[in-house]
Design a protein that fits this description.
With 76 residues, the protein is of the alpha+beta class. The chain has one domain (3-74). It is built from 4 helices and 2 strands. The longest helix has 13 residues, at 62-74.
Length: 76
């Protein structure tokens, strides 16, 4: 399990956005994204998760991240 997933209960009191590229060899989704998403669900943390097709390219997740921030931080 990734170290951040072990901290999921500590993060359950704040909104979290998780994004990962399916083609990211440096941090395979099965080793990092999947355990974190599962741990956040178990901890009942308020989170949104996005798995996009590319590799490590933050621009692919930017619209989703902006929407999440607007909804959770500014109530839009």
């Amino acid at each position: 399990m990734c170290r951040l997933a072990q901290r999921a209960p500590d993060l359950a009191d704040r909104p979290i956005f998780v994004a990962s590229g399916r083609k990211r060899p440096a941090a395979p989704s099965a080793n990092h994204y999947a355990p974190l998403v599962k741990a956040l669900r178990v901890a009942k943390a308020p989170f949104a998760a996005l798995k996009f097709d590319g590799g490590h390219n933050p621009s692919e997740a930017s619209a989703a991240a902006q929407s999440f921030i607007e909804r959770t931080c500014f109530g839009r």
